[in-house]
Amino acid sequence: MESSAAEPAGIYVHWPFCARKCPYCDFFTFGREHPDFAKSSGFANALLAEIQNTSVVFGAIGASGCGQGARPKAVPEADTLYLGGGTPSLMEPDQIAAVMQSLGEAFALSPEAEITMEVNPTAADIERLQGAITAGVNRVSLGCQSFDDRFLTLLGRDHDAAMGRRAVEKVRALGFENVSLDIMFGLPGQTPADFERDLSTLLEFEPEHISAYGLTLHSGTPFKRWEADGRILMPGDEPTARMYETLMDRLGEAGYAHYEISNWARPGLASRHNSKYWSKCDVYAFGPSAHGVVGGRRYSKPRDLDGFLNLAATRPDRLVEVEQPPGEERTRLAEVMMLALRRVPGVEWSELDRWSGRSIREFYDNEVGRLCEGGMIEADEKAIRLTRRGLLVADRVMEEFF
Question: pTM for this one?
Fold first, then answer.
């Protein structure tokens, strides 16, 4: 599958340490309570080594057939950088500065680059955030998740509603003009009225960007076990759908554009980095468990902290696991559709054809006709998109293409 190689790349850096591991989280992270949290200093050095070996790391992907045999550029161009985790705002100012310097040497990073750091309310430390600004961070994604103490306690968050409010005030006072706030819905015991109050509080802060995620229970997490044991009771599909409809209605009324299934933004302030994933641009990923794509080849890094610490400086090429494309054409094309239809405004057939290497509309003619009749999608000669009804059951719609 072809990538949008003409576009500058994005960069993702995974910092796998946080103050506390939330019981619903299945990301590759370590809270302070975990013995591996003590390895964060050594991890910072290993991360720098991996970045400094960029050409070796991603040359391994090129050698595996990246972009029909093309290798990544010696100094790739990039115009977005996302520091995620975990809680990268726990990084010390000198660590952030060193990471930014190494990335600036490994990439031709645009002076107008969007540089985002995820921030947890308890890690909104003035000195660290000021260090991030000095290093070049110009956008923050603040993980408030809720402004209701009942649900923050339930989620195992290490902050309360008052701390979340103060964190927003801090980043504004420091001069951040591009702030994204996270909010969750579909929580155990949550009613549509509860969520609407939470959303009203969030809107008081007038963020430039909002990410809203329905709670998903992942295998191996405490939340999954608690549901099986009857300790938590998830709301049904109907109440959760009403919460999502509230999101669409309230955020639309407030002037936010719904540009991706889980994301809304003020005009012109959609996340440029996240948009690269949905538009199949190259993304160079660093750190354990990080995922990216180069020249149309998807890859990931192992979920192995000790392996990363041991190999980042000596054999960074062994940290790259190149994913093999699906053998069946239908699965390969379904993955194209699943990615593209996350874009709420829709996607043109010509773009889908370029990604897939064939007429994808012709291939899915029956499925598209059936979904249009069911009111789940709208499609014409030029483009396809999910309808409001389709957005409410997007996962089920995507299954139709597999």
Answer: 0.93
